[in-house]
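Re: Re: ligand-bound prediction request (bumping)

Still looking for help on this. To restate: I need the protein modeled with nicotinamide-adenine-dinucleotide bound, output as structure tokens. Inputs repeated here so nobody has to scroll up.
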Amino acid sequence: MKDYQRLPVNTGRPYDILLGRGLLGQAGTFIREVCPLSVRAMVVTDSNVAPLYADAVRDSLIRAGFSTVCVFAFEAGETHKRIETVTAMYGALAKGQFDRRDVIVALGGGVTGDMAGFAAATWMRGIRFVQIPTTLLAQVDSSIGGKTGVDIAEGKNLVGAFWQPVRVIADIDTLSTLPEPYVVDGMGEVIKSASIRDAALFELLERTNDFSPEWLTEIVRRCMEIKRAVVEADERERGERKLLNFGHTLGHALEKELHYTGISHGCAVAVGMAAVTAAAEKAGLTAAGTTARLAALLQKYHLPTDSPVPLETFLPHVTLDKKAAGGEVDLVLLENIGNAYCKRMKIADLSTFFES
Ligand SMILES: NC(=O)c1ccc[n+]([C@@H]2O[C@H](COP(=O)([O-])OP(=O)(O)OC[C@H]3O[C@@H](n4cnc5c(N)ncnc54)[C@H](O)[C@@H]3O)[C@@H](O)[C@H]2O)c1
Ligand SMILES: [Zn+2]
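Reply:
Sorry for the wait, this slipped through. Here it is.
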């Protein structure tokens, strides 16, 4: 048995995050602990992750006594995060006669976790699911907090449910095969977390330039702590959890403008964080010098700070963001590095705010 850390998440239905190295081979045991009566397990994964890790997880589930273990692999990519893929999952669940005792295991990035979680939330009105996040973004962000869902033509994540996993198993070793652009992407969320809640992590990121497994474990753990604390305080995103949207209002609008293919999520969020902080600092709403520090850190981790298209072209999409209500939007601003707050602004005032 290898060492791992256990982080409890005290949401309405509490669960543990297990974080460490070499955990995939023990996944079955860890899943059995939280699914004592399950007979069947369905491993949901994508076409890139399946050949790398599905066998290890499947074999481990079989060793742990699951009598039916099927692997459902869909074609990788955000364009497949849609209801049709979930419908195909329902077909596989029906064929395998999955019932309320059984479990869905999401093995992959945020696309896999969001969709497998949504299938779990809705199959038989809710069955257990376990997250095994294999991207940096999924480990630090999407696997924790219970937001699940799919995209539709009108926007990302417009259909979904809150459904907490029964366990999150984050194996740092899986990051060794993650292509570089996705590491960069994940760093966007890491820098977001540090900016809103953890000045010490921000300083560590400024000082080091290391992607060793030990350092990655430390980064992931600290971001998990932040996400866990925020989600515990506000499971259904009524207040504090909104702070996690730092950089996201503009980021989502930019992603939409570029049809979700022209820029990655982490890069769009980086542009959003840089733009909103620059505007807020000019307006005296953010401490002087914050923009320069944030921009330098983003650039250090190869994240963009300038938008590839003018702001006026994508600002109108903010009105379509599901977080925009009644002609107003809650913008997340930094008071300084490590402290964030929400400021409600009229959408009509946004262009002046950003042009300032
Ligand atoms: N639920 C939430 O709270 C939440 C939060 C943030 C983002 N999200 C969602 O997460 C999604 C983005 O997640 P993502 O960036 O992980 O995307 P992703 O799941 O598409 O993974 C990125 C790419 O990496 C590949 N991959 C994954 N793990 C790998 C590994 N270990 N080795 C090699 N390749 C690997 C995947 O096949 C894919 O090509 C978006 O749909 C977004 O909406 C959800
Ligand atoms: Zn994000």
